[in-house]
Amino acid sequence: MALLEVSDLRTSFHTRGGVVRAVDGVSFTLDKGETLGIVGESGSGKSVTCYSLMKLIPEPPGRIESGTAFFDGQDLLQMSPKQLRKIRGNRISMIFQDPMTSLNPYLRISTQLIEALRIHTNIDKKAALKKAIEALEEVGIPGAAQRVNQYPHEFSGGMRQRVMIAMALITEPDLLIADEPTTALDVTVQAQILDIIKERQNRLGTAVILVTHDLGVVAGTCDKVNVMYGGKLMESGTAEQVFYNAIHPYTRSLQKTIPSLQAKGENLYTIAGLPPDVSKPIHGCAFYPRCPYPKTGAPEGDRPQLVDAGDGHCFADCRFCDSSAPIETVLPQKDAGDLAGEELA
Amino acid sequence: MSDHSETAVLADEPVPPPTEASEIAAEELEEGSSLWRDAWQRLRRNKLALASLFIFLAICLFCVAGPWFSPYNADAQDLFLGAVGPSWAHPFGTDTLGRDLMVRVMEGGRISLLVGLVATMVALLIGVMYGAVAGYLGGKVDSAMMRFVDLLYALPFTIFVILLMVAFGRSLWLIFVAIGAIEWLTTARIVRSGVLGLKKQEFVEAANSLGFSHMRIIVRHLIPNVLGPVIVVATLTVPAVMLLEAFLSFLGLGVQPPDASWGVLINEGQQNMEIFPWMLIFPAFFFALTLFCLNFLGDGLRDALDPKSAKD
């Protein structure tokens, strides 16, 4: 049985401007020790998906409309706040985007590291502190025994993110949700942080959900990838499937935006237009207005469902554009011919 | 473990062997709440605040213990003596009824300090909890709670006190209640606005994601972050409360003769200011000195409570 089985998750925000369907029917599964990458533009529902799993959506205005999220046989979405508190920080932990604000400035690192441990396990203070120091050492903080008594402002951004990782993993959770853990950090530190997450994951057998809009990060670290757009999955599959055999026009467009894959001296590729306004009803494919492929029909009806293209590689079958048209994707295409055939089928 | 870490940052810090240090750390932790202990460490380095603390404690001691060592009784009148200036027998002089002013300043100080500190404590306790809960819960609960605060703000203070006096009779405790009930409103507003800003920060979300209860988040994570402004308010509240007490006494609603408070003594002194200046000077001096000390102390405490102000 999969560690996490999410099906038909729908989360909306009831605002004055209407109902914003931030997550609109997302399903995926995650096994023990696996890494799932969720990619997409800002506002595509990546973070809301994760927050919904932890039930950290502020209610109101947010509301989880429907869906199930079975974590180790229990539905997270049906749990009482008390049950949830036992899971949060203990079996599912989270790392946040901005390490500068995700530590309490008024408490020592030791206090913050120990707090989670002491709440979830029967451990005495001394043992907890020892464990906290070990946890800091494991994420590569030199002089951990001294550093543990310092305050967050005495740490740099990269160091703070390491502390956050140590804090999230100190209870050895089964699932780690990392919500853009490297976005606020500079590039060299990004690589270190990802290395550490990877290393800790291998050691502890933790499953990881990595939310990012950096496709390079996904390619390097993830087993599975979900591509989200307008609150729905556009494409999902193994990292290889999604990267080398991308089917959906949106995934292909995203790939084109990777700067390192573009020739030097050229303007960076951007996807024209804006992400869809999910507070308004969307007919047909949400990506239609921005789709670079020749259009074959006007979008109508419901948003396209995910269909399996084989081997668990799913994509939202849009049928409103001619994606068999020549694609100038820069990634090496393994079976471009097959792809086109599959999509037309 | 990755070894491409930011060792350079630490280069200037001596690094003792880790085992030893972890023992030290464990010992330090045993001593409990690190926030207050650290604050005390930092406060000790602030000369002005420390001096203020000692002067303030000295004033408290003077007022509390003083009357036991004085040969005079605060309400013992000596009408033949009348008002005389400071002398060896009466270091602060006597008032128009021949009562020893030093004992009266001590006795008055007991009441003024008690009212000032207790009412402020009550106000802070209620205000901080109320404001933090309102700010943290937000939404409709917050609106309802803050409208209640507005309602109390609108209530005329004097009428409120008179009503209390009529209903429960006159007592010192009622003054605490009345003053506390008014003064917590400002604290609640300040704390609420602080918490509203703080709860958007990721460390609150992180605390939530680690499975902490709401109460724990409010008490351990949010309130320490708003203590800075609260302390400043508190140091301003103490004198305000003392003045309120003097005002109530003046209206006949507070401390009644022959009992005295600094407010009452200053009021009496002010009436005889031109003929018997010592009657104003001594109580006013103690009043002012106390307020000075509390202000410096509050300022120092605010800096001490903020880990970022530490120079170590």
Automatic annotation (TrEMBL), chain A:
Bilayer topology annotation: Peripheral membrane protein
Signal sequence segment: none
Subcellular location: Cell inner membrane
GO BP terms, alphabetized: peptide transport; transmembrane transport
Pfam families for this protein: ABC_tran, oligo_HPY
Domain called ABC transporter: residue spans: 4-255
GO cellular component, one term: plasma membrane
Superkingdom as given in the UniProt entry: Bacteria
UniProt keyword terms in alphabetical order: ATP-binding, Cell membrane, Membrane, Nucleotide-binding, Transport
CDD domains given in the database record: ABC_NikE_OppD_transporters
GO molecular function, one term: ATP binding
Alphabetical list of SUPFAM superfamilies matching this protein: P-loop containing nucleoside triphosphate hydrolases
Record-stated family: Belongs to the ABC transporter superfamily.
NCBIfam families named among the record's database cross-references: oligo_HPY
Name of the protein described by the UniProt record: Peptide ABC transporter ATP-binding protein
Organism name: Croceicoccus mobilis
Source organism phylogeny: Bacteria, Pseudomonadati, Pseudomonadota, Alphaproteobacteria, Sphingomonadales
TrEMBL record, chain B:
Superkingdom of the organism of origin: Bacteria
Region ranges (Disordered): 1-21
Alphabetical list of InterPro entries matching this protein: BP-dependent_transpt_permease, MetI-like, MetI-like_sf, OppC_N
Membrane topology (UniProt): Multi-pass membrane protein
Compartments it resides in: Cell inner membrane; Cell membrane
Entry protein name: Oligopeptide transport system permease protein OppC
Gene3D superfamilies assigned: MetI-like
Record domain ABC transmembrane type-1: where: 109-298
Keyword Lyase: no
Gene Ontology cellular-component annotations: plasma membrane
